[in-house]
Amino acid sequence: MRRGWGISILAGLLVLWLGVWPRHAKTPSTQNTLMTTMLGGGEDAGFERALEPRPMYFPEDHGPHPRFKQEWWYMTGNLSSADDGRRFGFELTLFRLALTPEARERTSHWGSSQVQMGHFAITDIKGGQFHHFQRFSRMAMDLAGAVAQPFRVWLGNWSITGDGGSPLRPSLHLAAGTDQIALDLKMISLKPVVLQGDAGLSRKSEEPGNASYYYSLPRLETSGSLTLHGQQFSVSGLSWFDREWSTSALGKHQEGWDWFALQLSDGWDLMFYSMREKKGGSSSSSAGTLIDPQGKTVAISNQGMVLEPLGHWLSPKTGINYPSGWRLKNVEAGLDLEVMPWLKDQELDRTVVRYWEGAVRVRGTHDKREVHGNGYVELAGYRKVP
Amino acid sequence: MKTIFVAPFLIRSSFRYFLRHPWMTFLAIFGIALGVAVVTAVDLANQGAMRAMRLTMESLSGQSTHRLVGPVGGMDEAVFGQLRWSQGVEHAAPVVEGSVLAVDFPNQVLKLLGVDLVADAPFRPHLLQNAEGIDLKSLVTVPQTAILSVETATRFGLKNGERLHLLVAGKKREVTIIGLLSATDPLIRQGLADTLVVDVATAQELLDFHGRLTRVDLILSPGAEKPPVPEPLRWVETERRTQALEGLTQSFRLNLSVLSLLALLVGMFIIFNTITFSVVRRRSLIGLLRAQGVTRGELLTQLLADGLLLGIPGTALGLIMGVALGKGLLILVVQTINDLYFGLQVTGLPLDLTVMVKGGLLGVGASLVAAWPAAWEAVSISPSTALSRAALEVSAGRGVIRAGGLGALMLAGSGVIWIVPGHNLYAGFAVLGFFTVGAALLTPGLMVLLVELSKPVMRRYGGWMGWLALGSVPRNLSRTGVAVAALTVSVATVVGMGILVESFRGTVVRWLEETVASDIYVSTGETSTGAGVEVGILDPGLIETLAKVPGVASVGLGRRVALETQGGIVNLFVLDVDWSRFSERWFLKGDAKDLWPRFQKGEILLVSESLAFRRKLDLGSLLEIPTPMGIKSFPIVGIYADFRADTGSVTISRAMFAHYWGEKAMASMGIRVEEGVRIEDVMDKLKQAAGLSSSVEIQSNRGLRQASLDIFDRTFAVTRVLRLLSVLIAFFGIWTALMAIQLERTRELAVFRALGMTHDELFRMTLMETGIMGIIAGLLAMPLGWFMGLILIEVINYRSFGWSLHRDASLGMLAQALVISVPTALVAGAFPAWRMARTPPLESLRENL
User: Fold this and answer.
1) Chain B interface, mutation test: which of A3, A7, A10, A18, most B Cβ atoms within 10 Å?
2) B81 shares its domain with B141
3) Residue B767 within a domain
4) Does A165 fall in a domain?
5) CB B587 within 8 A of CB B806
6) B81 is in which domain, residue-wise?
7) Pick among B86, B137, B265, B273 to test the A interface (most A CBs inside 10 A)
8) CA B361, CA B363: separation in Å to the nearest integer?
9) A1/B402 CB distance under 8 A
């Protein structure tokens, strides 16, 4: 009998211990809710729209286009550490969001009709961790802003700055950080500016005006340093810089997009976006560009592009079921690639807009030769299926 | 234990046994399920409670941890940019504040609050409450736009879209109202009263405050260094409105953990009872098997396997029940929260894996552990003894004594740990654990004692049936002992929880009433925490003016100074109050009447309970505090209650402040309003008297008090759910256990019937038996519950926070024990009694060989 009691008491104590173990939970962000209220539901009236191709001027177009409702400076890249080859992915995006098309004369320096939103993410592939951060600021008081000459776009100490080179092949300096993470990178354009779509007009749906002006610097040789929770890495790799401005992009029948930016080992790069229809399937407006090692482009249409998900990943945080891994095939372009995420969870789940933006690795054939590479994929507009 | 594998025929025998007694099997599984369910449900409800608490806290305005303040003329706005992204700064928001005069409403002063919505969300989340319909874009981009609270707009008869004419420093200005905020939370509504919310740019333009900010609100990472700032800017730690509530939140969180722990104990007892019962009642079968040559090892393994056979489905069922119950009850709570908070997703309560794992471990583990003692007892005796029920009851009788001895030892151990002073929370848990288990072990003995004591009464009034019923309880000790112990513990837990929750709330109510005794609170809105700093000081002329406003009955003055001492920052409260207010300070140690004259003269100081606790001080100890005249040490002669989250406080009189600090200036005014006068009227008069000349904040404390209570009641709604849950489980636990006992006695009762007892008599006797057990459990649960409440309050809460909660153990609360246990016991007896009465005795006799 006595032995039995001893065991009972021990087991009881163990269970009691479990019972007082603290647990944590997240609270919904009031900032996200407020920003959604403030930015959402706006009218497009008064804003300029991307209706037809227009001449692009550089370096002017590296700067802001405040008469369009939204604009972004979108840098993604795959890096590896010089010491041990440890791999990282990164994203730094600065979004300009206009509250009204016209800025009013204000005597206060705080007066502003533009807000900047920044997203910064680091994928620590070996550590299996995805860190992401969001910030906001009004574009006033030098808190945040964008200037074409000399090129600089910044949100506090998150910035992308011109660092020499030529207007079509600029060199850039990127800096971003938080209390725990710091990224400092220098970038040299290996290819000149690539105008996406029809001379820079990228149509997203059938309706005129649902389009953006879009150009890329698809291959930036990158080197610098990453500090992650006190550990410093000297890193190098390739980055991709996207610039896009528009007033509206999604058509009524569309729900989101899957965007691919892949850098292949044979020097070719591929951008492809698939606009998803609400009723399922991809819109005929889906399109892409294949870029040769010199920077010459071949347009890729939706026809002939086979994009087949190889699996799915159910986000435990948001309950959204994202496709995860693809077979990308285009006979005309001679592409047959398998695109796999370096890490399944690269979801930005605490941001105003939830999306998956992550580093991917590529394997397959291009013109019947074996290729490999890296890239970034963005999955936007996915919702939790009830 | 030689055999590891169980002979197939043994498995078959168990299986057949369970199938042949479907009711008993069902009750056993259900009993385990209940134990698991209570733990799972309470844990889930706990999560809901935490969530409710967090939401409540978040809804309170002013989440800032620090403020950066400048000289009277404001600070250079460029400071914000330098500061915003500095290391350690989580959030920062610029604020431009000022007073304006609404010219269309004679002498009406409005507060102009200029914020940057883009940066401000974490600080003033109430701006988003019902902000959905408001054109926030225009507030930012269109000059001269403002929003008002619905209440203020109604007071002025203003409608959305209308213009408001203002006079700012002699200049005419105008704003358009572009939105009305309707805050559901009373605290927030109060914070928005008479306030024009505008964009920071608009505020600069209206106030002619270009290039400057009044202050910067910040949330710094915990433990982060403050970024350097140029002179004459100063850091001020924000005295949050919610500060007092925050300390209590911490304690609330702890208490929820304790409640979940208690639920675990109850769950374990219920399972223990179920399994012990299932082994004990198969004792004769065990004897038969042993007589036929089955070895002890085989039997022991088999009995433990049986524990699993019942434990696994029971656990699975329990997890499902727990989730359903916890969630179902939570929906009630969540609805209230949803009513109060706009746009928050509270409904999706994620299933916590730890909760499920814990429930699973408990169910299966406790089933196994509980099977051990009874199984061991059954196999360690000779087969012939096992066959005899009488032998079992004799051995149970001996067990009662042994258990009682062990129980007394555990109680003593619990007492010893209690007496040892210290801050160790786990020691507190040990006190609770030892006490509960010890008391449960004593229960069977006490039950026998209670039966013996009530025998004379029963003999006189109970009739022969009562006599029989009473006797059957100790006669079936092997069954009734564990069951009554389990019931006592679960009912006692409900009582203990009740005492804790009521005491907690009672304490908050009393504390709020006694410390927030003024009706109106006047301050500069700036918190001055340093001595010798002029910011935040009330102009002596103004104090005099306000004291003379008609309707003001009495005035008390105060000031808070942060003292850097060796043990960390201590708040020094300087009080200039009269006797009536002094006596209201809630003294725990020391007599207010004796202390008053010495306090007035500045001879003594008083310390808060939490300071005394942390520094191990008591009456008579010396406390060293730094003063401009050097470090002085003072004897402690009075200790008062304080539930603020800080490290403790010291209270001195204005005379002492003047003597050691050489200062007389005060920073806040507590005004009491004459009987029968409306507070709002006095506030209006005070505002007029204060005028535009100084920026003072005039708040109604009555509103604050009420609002704080509302918040607590909202939070306590969840604990009420928790208790309801425990009552429900206790109810089912009693029901299951007693019904099982009665069902098992089918044969015995059939004998009674065969001997000539009528249906009716049998029915009544069965009811009486369970009733007696219910009464015993209820009676024993009263002192046990009371002590559990005492331990929760005096040991656990005191050890972790150094707070004395005022104990509210009403008789009603104790009576609850009987209210739960007796009717439940009667209901539990009804079904077997009814079944018995219907079954012909012969059948019952045959059925239970």
Assistant:
1) A18
2) yes
3) yes
4) yes
5) no
6) 66-239
7) B137
8) 6
9) yes
Provide the terminal-to-terminal Cα distance of chain B, rounded to the nearest Å.
30
Instruction: Give the pLDDT confidence score for residue B574 in this predicted structure.
Output: 87
Query: Of B217, B239, B261, which closes a domain?
Result: B239
Contact A11 B376 (CB under 8 A): no
| Residue A348 lies inside a defined structural domain of this protein | yes
B706, B512 Cβ separation under 8 angstroms: no
Nearest CB to B376; choose among A1, A106, A157: A1
> Is the predicted pLDDT of residue A34 greater than 80, yes or no?
no
The Cα of B206 is separated from the nearest Cα of chain A by a number of Å equal to 10
Establish if B519 belongs to a structural domain.
Answer: no
Distance between CA atoms of residues B10 and B381, nearest Å: 19
Cis peptide before A59 (omega within 30 of 0): yes
Q: B183 and B105, same structural domain?
A: yes
Final residue before a domain boundary, out of B239, B270, B304: B239
User: Has residue B175 been placed in a domain?
Assistant: yes
Q: Is residue B684 part of a domain?
A: yes
- Which amino acid type is present at position A296? K
- Quote the pLDDT of residue B56: 53
**The tokens 């358009």 sit on which residue?**
B176
Residue at A55 is within a domain: no
pTM comes to 0.60
Q: Do B143 and A104 touch (CB under 8 A)?
A: yes
pLDDT digits (tens, 9 = 90+) for B27-69: 778 878 887 887 787 777 767 666 655 555 554 445 677 888 8
Chain B residues within 8 A of A108 when measuring between CB atoms: 200-202, 204-205, 210
What domain count does chain B have? 3
Shared domain for B722 and B684, answered yes or no, is no
DSSP annotation of B105 reads S
DSSP state of A102: S
Indicate if B764 and B831 belong to the same structural domain: yes
> CA–CA separation, B494 vs B263, rounded Å?
9
A37 reaches B (C-beta below 8 A): yes
**pLDDT band, very low/low/confident/very high, at A28 (cuts 50, 70, 90):** very low
Nearest chain A Cα to B426, which residue? A17
- Residue A150 to residue A153: CA distance in whole angstroms: 10
User: What pLDDT was estimated at residue B252?
Assistant: 64
Distance CA(B432)–CA(B425), nearest Å, equals: 11
Q: Is the CB of B119 less than 8 angstroms away from the CB of A42?
A: no
In a domain, A137, yes or no: yes
**B177 closest CA partner among B168, B194, B164:** B164
Distance from CA of A67 to the nearest CA of B (A): 15
Question: Which is more confident, B260 or B350?
Answer: B260
d(CA B141, CA A365): 53
> Can you give the pLDDT at residue B206?
93
- Reduced to 3 states, what is the DSSP secondary structure of residue B112? strand
Q: Tell me the residues of chain A between 103 and 142 that have a Cβ less than 8 Å away from chain B.
A: 103-104, 106-113, 115, 136-138, 140-142
φ/ψ of residue B552, rounded to 5: -80, 120
Which CATH number is A308's domain given? 2.40.370.10
Three state DSSP letters for B751-803: HHHHCCCCHHHHHHHHHHHHHHHHHHHHHHHHHHHHHHHHHHHHHHHHHHHCC
Check whether residue B351 and residue B336 sit in a common domain: yes
Query: Residue B533: left (phi > 0), alpha (psi -120 to 50), or beta?
Result: beta
Query: Same domain for B54 and B89?
Result: no
CB atoms within 10 A of CB B234: 17
- Domain containing A312 equals 60-102+109-246+253-380
Q: Check CB contact under 8 Å for A137 and B119.
A: yes
Number of domains in chain A: 1
Comparing CB atoms, the residue among A30, A113, A179 nearest residue B122 is A30
Are B745 and B768 in a shared domain?
Answer: yes
The CA distance from A141 to the nearest CA of chain B, in Å, is 7
